[in-house]
UniProtKB/TrEMBL annotation:
Sequence intervals crossing the membrane: 361-386, 395-419, 444-468, 489-506, 555-582, 620-647, 667-686
The keyword Zinc-finger is annotated on this UniProt entry: no
Gene3D superfamilies per record: Rhodopsin 7-helix transmembrane proteins (1.20.1070.10)
Keywords of this entry: Membrane, Transmembrane, Transmembrane helix
Name by which UniProt lists this protein: G-protein coupled receptors family 1 profile domain-containing protein
Length: 719
């Protein structure tokens, strides 16, 4: 039986109630709760199915509580809000905040999206958000750009938070409010303060709706802001900017600062993400003429002339005890209209976060395609090898058949993983199963652990196959590579190599944080590649920050697994293919030398000898081309894994942005599928028997001369 209610005593603020893992609000029989003597400060709801928040949810148990101060109500995994929602009316707390996660900001009426928005439909929006003092749509919310402002009619909202806004090519999540062009004060909406956190975003009237924000006292913008449209200046009288692209914003928005009047109050927080070097002094050259701009600093900085100029004489004298000598007139003379700032520092953490989203989208589209071709090519290989194995018991065909089975199994696992994977943080366009607990366990055991073992076995078989081809060419078809003793050693080696993949079990774990407060708290379900400490084995981890320092043992096992199962086996196969090529060229020279002596006196035989030599040369080129393609694909795969190790050792991104590292692991898997798709081509060109049976599988008859000729032009002799 599922446990729908979990209570936590936070001691100082009081109790927190978590309602979770239900699929319908009717499953929550809250009437039996008696909390009259309880100091409750937070209540959170997480549903396994996406639900429309409506009046079926019973919050009457909150009416009997003696309110003391603030109450935080959070919902995760909502499909939207019912237009008749009125469940907050009877709650008597002095300050109620509503926080929304992994949801869509859509309005529904009778289970259908309700988009009608004009004064005729005012009564339809009357009850929503009544009695709510603060509303926060967190980073995992999917916005609508046609939200109706009537939601806030006759409402007094102290704080409105809109986070997770993005306007990039791959990821657009833009809120917008319908312009009703109402008469002044007709909406009667009072939103005291507005906070926006965005990435590469242009602030315009689609968000700063005049009817909604004409009474707003303060505006605060964080993250990365490209520009502010001039129209919006009339609204913002008290503005606080905490931008991590301040240098870029100032350079691109000089007109904004020119329109600031003496009544406006602007506060700018200087962060370490920006470039305050003297070479970019001209970016900030006009700051001293704006007396109503105040600055605050949130990092340890090195005093220079640009910092002194920005802060002003008074504040810089406090922040810079050692006086900096500056000739500001010389700096100002250097500035001209054609000035272009140098080395504007890129946004570091946000770039990493949103780059991971873009990479995730890229991988999400390409992996199924690569996996499909891998599955299709190995199906053909398996069918051909089944037919060959009926007539031949050579070990080389057994190894090829086993490798096809392993790759087919791994492709099947990845097809299942594809439907569970989600590249948008807000879960938009994703199946609603990734956060279910047992699904996360299946992901860890089947996809992470079993899938890695299958990759290890495949890499081992490919290395063995390359070695087998070389030995057959050198010693002939009678050479027996797998003796009873060698088989035993081979099985033991595969088992030991596979055991290294246990780090996938230890380095991935179930994520039960369904309420991530900011962009950097969203790390995927389950969590992977964090290299964190062992305490998750005994505790329920709700956030990446619940961990202690990173686990050096996990990183060591990950690196060892990478070095042996990926790099070492690849190098062995590469060296073997190189030896195969050398042996092939050596045999070619010997054959041509013998043929040259035997046919020196016969012109016709000499011509045949030249044709044979040309044929051998072509086959040599085919070996080089096929090996080069395989090397390129495997090198790209190894490069992705190497970059993950680099990120952890050099920069530490895997600790705070674990999903970013997981994306590069997935990208490496994509190149693996591409290389596994190419194995059928290698089999075809390196084995005559396989090539003949492959043509029979395609039912190429003697009359299909053009197709036979085309295949024979690319076919190489048996090796």
């Amino acid at each position: 039986m599922k446990q729908y209610l979990n209570a936590k005593n936070k001691t100082t603020p009081g109790w927190q109630l978590d309602f979770q893992h239900y699929s319908s609000f009717t499953q929550l029989n809250n009437y039996c709760l008696n909390l009259s003597s309880t100091e409750l400060f937070a209540i959170r709801f997480y549903s396994e199915n996406k639900l429309i928040l409506n009046n079926i949810l019973d919050l009457d148990f909150l009416k009997g509580i003696n309110p003391k101060g603030r109450l935080s109500i959070a919902f995760s995994n909502l499909k939207g809000f019912d237009a008749n929602l009125s469940i907050f009316r009877g709650i008597n707390y002095k300050f109620i905040s509503l926080n929304i996660y992994f949801s869509s900001f859509e309005i529904y009426l009778k289970n259908k999206i309700f988009k009608k928005c004009n004064e005729t439909y005012t009564n339809f929006y009357t009850n929503i958000f009544n009695n709510i003092n603060s509303i926060a749509f967190l980073t995992t919310v999917k916005y609508s750009n046609t939200t109706c402002p009537l939601l806030f009619k006759d409402k007094l909202i102290n704080q409105l938070f809109l986070s997770g806004i993005s306007d990039t090519f791959f990821y657009k999540n833009l809120p917008g409010f319908v312009d009703l062009q109402l008469n002044e004060n007709a909406l009667n909406s009072t939103i005291m303060s507005l906070f926006l956190f965005a990435y590469k975003f242009n602030l315009d009237k689609n968000i700063l709706n005049k009817d909604m924000f004409e009474r707003t006292k303060s505006f605060e913008f964080g993250g990365s802001l490209n520009k502010i449209e001039p129209f919006e200046l009339i609204l913002m009288k008290d503005l606080h900017l905490t931008l991590i692209n301040l240098d870029f914003f100032v350079f691109k928005n000089t007109k904004y600062f020119e329109h600031i009047n003496t009544k406006d109050k602007i506060k700018i927080t200087l962060s370490s993400s920006n470039n305050y070097l003297d070479e970019n002094f001209c970016v900030y050259r006009n700051f001293r003429s704006y007396e109503n701009i105040t600055f605050s600093i949130q990092f340890i900085f090195k005093c220079n002339c640009t910092i002194v100029w920005i802060l002003g004489e008074y504040q810089s004298s406090k922040s810079c005890p050692n006086k900096v000598l500056c000739n500001f007139q010389q700096f100002l003379n250097y500035c001209n209209p054609k000035f272009v700032p140098k080395n504007i520092k890129k946004i570091f953490l946000l770039n990493i976060l949103y780059s991971s989203i873009e990479f995730n989208i890229f991988v999400w589209f390409l992996i199924p395609l690569a996996c499909f071709f891998g599955f299709l090519s190995n199906i053909f290989s398996f069918m051909v090898l089944v037919k060959i194995r009926e007539l031949s018991k050579e070990y080389i065909f057994l190894i090829m058949q086993m490798n096809s089975i392993v790759i087919l199994t791994y492709c099947f696992i990845n097809f299942i993983h594809f439907f569970n994977n989600c590249f948008f943080p807000n879960g938009y366009l994703c199946l609603n199963i990734s956060k279910i607990i047992y699904v996360q366990y299946l992901e860890i055991v089947v996809y992470d652990f079993l899938g890695s073992i299958l990759k290890t076995i495949s890499n081992f078989l490919l290395a063995l196959l390359a070695f087998y081809r070389y030995k057959l060419l050198k010693h002939g078809s009678n050479y027996q590579i797998l003796t009873a003793k060698r088989k035993k050693c081979l099985i033991i080696a595969i088992f030991i190599f596979s055991c290294l993949n246990v780090e996938k079990l230890l380095n991935s774990f179930v994520n039960i944080n369904f309420f991530p407060t900011n962009e950097f708290d969203y790390l995927g379900y389950p969590l992977r590649n964090t290299f964190k400490d062992w305490n998750y084995l005994s505790e329920n981890i709700e956030s990446i920050f619940s961990f202690d320092n990173f686990n050096l043992d996990l990183l060591a096992i990950f690196s060892l697994n990478f070095l042996i199962n990926s790099l070492l086996l690849f190098v062995i196969a590469l060296i073997t293919d190189f030896l195969l090529l050398l042996q092939f060229r050596k045999d070619l020279k010997q054959v041509m030398y013998i043929n040259g002596k035997m046919n020196a006196s016969n012109l016709n035989d000499n011509n045949k000898s030249k044709k044979a030599e040309n044929s051998r040369i072509k086959k040599t080129y085919y070996i080089i081309i096929n090996s080069s393609i395989q090397i390129i694909l495997r090198t790209c795969e190894l490069g992705c894994y190497t970059y993950v190790v680099y990120l952890r050792l050099k920069l530490g991104e895997c600790m705070s942005e674990a999903k970013f590292c997981s994306v590069f692991v997935d990208l490496g898997n994509m190149f693996y599928f591409m290389s596994s798709s190419f194995t059928v081509v290698i089999y075809y060109f390196l084995n005559q028997t396989f090539a003949d049976n492959f043509k029979q599988l395609l039912r190429i008859g003697k009359n299909d001369k053009k197709l036979v000729l085309l295949i024979n032009n690319f076919k190489r002799g048996g090796v």
